[in-house]
Design a protein that fits this description.
Elements (H helix, E strand, L loop, with lengths): L4 H29 L7 E5 L2 E8 L12 H21 L3 H24 L2 E9 L2 E6 L1 H19 L7
Helix pairs in contact: 1-3, 1-4, 2-3, 3-4
């Protein structure tokens, strides 16, 4: 099955926007309605906690302490490059993966503008080992990256958008 390039682009945007919409709804509910402001902790399973942590850096709290203007510059440059890649993309999976990445990043950027930091909620751990705390937008970014790698490794010519 093949869809036109224009429809593929539109569909990738509509599906990718779900990362932003779900993340914004989740954060609005927890922060504005439930009144969480940081430090909340709900143990869910022996390996998963539901928390609110404010991330002032970027992924994995990298660049914490770096001036916000520099972080905004780096984010803007990365977004511009991803958008250019999206514009030039030839396959639906590449379009979709980049859309998830761009919309997820946009939602986290909105956090920075609204709160001065990114709100993260999901904490995976096992014993003393701890995975980073993440949010729905991060899940969208991760899914987007997986789709990009999958497309690069396994795309066939007939899957072109």
């Amino acid at each position: 099955m093949s869809i036109s390039p224009g429809k593929a682009r539109l569909l990738s945007l509509l599906i990718g926007a779900d990362a932003l919409i779900l993340d914004r709804v989740h954060k609005f509910f927890q922060i504005e309605i439930q009144g969480w402001n940081g430090g909340e902790f709900v143990p869910v399973t022996p390996f998963f906690n539901y928390v609110l942590v404010w991330n002032r850096g970027v992924s994995y709290s990298l660049l914490t302490g770096v001036p916000q203007a520099l972080i905004y510059l780096v984010i803007g440059m990365a977004a511009a490059l991803l958008a250019l890649w999206w514009w030039r993309a030839k396959t639906f999976l590449t379009l979709l993966g980049l859309s998830f990445c761009l919309f997820g990043a946009a939602s986290n950027f909105l956090d920075r503008l609204m709160y001065g930091a990114v709100a993260d909620f999901f904490h995976l751990h096992w014993g003393t080992w701890s995975f980073y705390v993440f949010n729905v937008a991060d899940m969208g970014i991760t899914l987007g990256a997986i789709l990009l790698v999958w497309d690069m490794l396994f795309a066939r010519p007939e899957t072109k958008a």
